[in-house]
Amino acid sequence: MNDHSYEILDLLDQYGGDTDAALAGEAGAKTPWCLYAFSPLRENLFEWVEFDKNARVLQIGADYGSYTRLLAERAAEVVVLDPRDESLEVCRRRNENCGKIRYIRGSAAGVPTDFCEYRPAANARETAEELMRRPFDCIFIVGVFEQAEKKEAAAVLEAAAGFLRDGGTLYAAAENEMGVRYLMGAEPMGTAFLESEFRGLFEGLKDRHGGTVMLYYPVPDYRYPAALYSDDYLPKAGEVTNISARYEGPGFQFGSEEEILAKACRNGQFAKMANSFLGVYRSDSGKRTERGPMCSGRA
Fold it and tell me: Which residues contact 50 (CB under 8 A, 6 or more apart)?
């Protein structure tokens, strides 16, 4: 999906910052990026994540501020890193009254001297360089890989992991090139990965730095997740339903996505055909435990 920060800023002006009113007012318009930016379903991707209230969190990619407030409600400090002023401004406008959030212009692969704080507070006690030098407990990456080339993904993940403290966790979402939605005719929304490619990126981190890796599978996708399966808990045939909603187009539907995924589940191929991935890298060696699907608190 292309960046629509300027259009989102216009909508924030038009609706006085009321995202619910913007969603209602634009419901009949062909503006899927409005839904992507403002839908409360966006928070479901990380609503289940738990971290200490004193945690430092790094969000790489402003992603229209769609889940930034969720992070700020749970952490002591959130730093949003993005190379574009307009993207940072959308995020700032949506979280104007939250003093826990700092906005840094720069890229994950940049060096500390390249970072610059966007609209710093008058009483800020740390420079952008100092903010980025202190390690983070959790790092979240959404909407970044779709706008980059595949060959850049490993460098982005490696750079992101460099900001992580010992025992910290990194989360990154991406589209599946072989997702059932695309097989049914939907138009790709940017760079996508095969399951083996995306898993390989995280396994590479583990091979180089130790730790553990888990792949999760948001249903219907990472943009509007209703449930989250994992390598330790994959769905059974018939368990994945109501995933055929098409928010971006044009596209053509040649059959039932649910039926195809049911067959994939029976044949052990769900992980290869899910629409999206959420990779999780933990820099410690804690043992993973099996759990059921994590269902959303929003619908």
Answer: none
pLDDT tens-digit map of 9-52: 999 999 999 999 999 999 877 678 899 999 999 999 999 999 89
CATH code for the domain in which residue 191 is found: 3.40.50.150
Contact between residue 295 and residue 240 where contact means Cβ atoms under 8 Å apart: no
Q: Which residues on adjacent β-strands are paired with residue 171? A: 140, 280
How far is the C-alpha of 104 from the C-alpha of 85, rounded, in Å? 9
State how far the alpha carbon of 175 is from the alpha carbons of 27, 100, 154, 207, 249, in Å: 25, 30, 15, 23, 15
Count of helices and strands (H, E) across the chain: 11, 11
Q: List, for residues 70-115, the tens digit of each pLDDT value.
A: 999 999 999 999 999 999 999 999 998 888 999 999 988 765 568 9
> CB neighbours of 77 closer than 8 A, spacing ≥ 6?
55, 56, 57, 100, 102
Coil, helix or strand at residue 176: strand
Sequential DSSP letters for 18-34: -HHHHHHHTTTSS-HHH
For residue 292, what are its two tokens? 């059921």
Residue found under tokens 């583990």:
206
Question: Residue 48's domain spans which residues?
Answer: 5-295
Q: Which residues of 207-226 are buried (b: 16+ CB within 10 A; e: fewer)?
A: eeeebbbebbbbbbbbbbbb
Domains of the chain: total: 1
292 or 80, higher pLDDT: 80
Q: What is the pTM of this model?
A: 0.89
